[in-house]
């Protein structure tokens, strides 16, 4: 009988996650470890430096002249439980969303919700108070709303409660955040609500025919070109008539990108929406895989 170690089991489960969720969780874990070890060896000065440099500060001039905060704040967390709850919700509801929409559309909803929630906070913070904001909650709320749009009647099993449909669970969480507005807690409720709102708008845009994945495609193309140029520079083929390993990897990445595009189009518009060339390409790539 095969006995798998606990570490191997964790690794296998993690690698089995869809690529976007796996990348997001991995980045959050790595950055949180940097926070923890920085706190251990650098004390509060290190934590204060991270917050002052990378947390979101909902003030207009800061947002305009330090735009990276709109992105970096999503990867900082106030503590272990803050991180765990965000990543659990992301894993719990996000997996079905990514498997349905594809990694590109999923990433656009995740980042768009996080950025949109922060931008909304710029306006409301003038009335509710300006404080540093950290955490992935706004982005996760966008994914939760996407799940509720895709699977509104899916039963959700919460602790000590009977199964509740996903739309009511998500609506209840949104209602709790509305009721908590103006309270004394350090929770960024406006960011949560903004993330939920952006997630809903992006899902409605997708349902209207807008290709969410197309938003991130140019960035991915630039990354692949840079990566391909680097690999070619690092390991040129010895024989000009032979492919190098890097060339094969680049070809495989390009083909995988084409396959992802076709599958995403099928998910959004159905198989019949494919052109004759796309159907032929899908058949060819399917044989390779």
UniProtKB/TrEMBL annotation:
The chain crosses the membrane at residues 12-33, 40-58, 70-93, 105-124, 130-151. It comes from Halalkalibaculum roseum. Residues 66-202 form the Peptidase S54 rhomboid domain. Residues 254-288 form the DUF6576 domain. It is found in: Membrane. SUPFAM superfamilies: Rhomboid-like (SSF144091). Pfam families: DUF6576, Rhomboid. This is Rhomboid family intramembrane serine protease. The lineage of its organism: Bacteria, Pseudomonadati, Balneolota, Balneolia, Balneolales. Keywords: Hydrolase, Membrane, Protease, Transmembrane, Transmembrane helix. GO terms for cellular component: membrane.
């Amino acid at each position: 009988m095969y006995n798998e170690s606990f570490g191997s089991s964790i690794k296998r489960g993690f690698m089995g996650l869809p690529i976007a969720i796996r990348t997001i969780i991995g980045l959050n874990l790595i950055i949180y470890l940097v926070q923890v070890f920085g706190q251990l060896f650098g004390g509060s000065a290190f934590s204060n430096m991270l917050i002052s440099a990378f947390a979101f500060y909902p003030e207009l001039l800061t947002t305009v002249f330090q735009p990276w905060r709109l992105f970096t704040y999503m990867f900082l967390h106030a503590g272990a439980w803050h991180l765990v709850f965000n990543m659990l919700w992301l894993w719990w509801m996000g997996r079905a969303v990514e498997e349905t929409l594809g990694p590109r559309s999923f990433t656009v909803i995740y980042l768009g919700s996080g950025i949109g929630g922060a931008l909304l906070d710029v306006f409301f913070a003038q009335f509710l108070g300006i404080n540093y904001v950290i955490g992935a909650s706004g982005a996760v709320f966008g994914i939760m709303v996407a799940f509720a749009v895709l699977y509104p009647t899916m039963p959700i099993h919460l602790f000590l409660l009977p199964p509740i449909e996903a739309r009511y669970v998500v609506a209840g969480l949104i209602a709790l955040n509305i009721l908590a507005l103006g309270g004394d807690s350090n929770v960024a409720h406006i960011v949560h609500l903004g993330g939920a709102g952006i997630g809903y708008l992006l899902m409605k845009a997708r349902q209207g025919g807008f290709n969410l994945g197309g938003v991130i495609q140019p960035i991915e193309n630039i990354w692949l070109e840079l990566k391909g140029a680097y690999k070619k520079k690092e390991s040129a083929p010895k024989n000009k008539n032979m492919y190098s390993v890097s060339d094969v990897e680049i070809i495989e990445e390009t083909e995988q990108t084409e396959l992802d595009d076709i599958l995403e189009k099928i998910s959004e518009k159905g198989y019949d929406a494919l052109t004759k060339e796309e159907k032929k390409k899908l058949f060819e790539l399917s044989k390779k895989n």
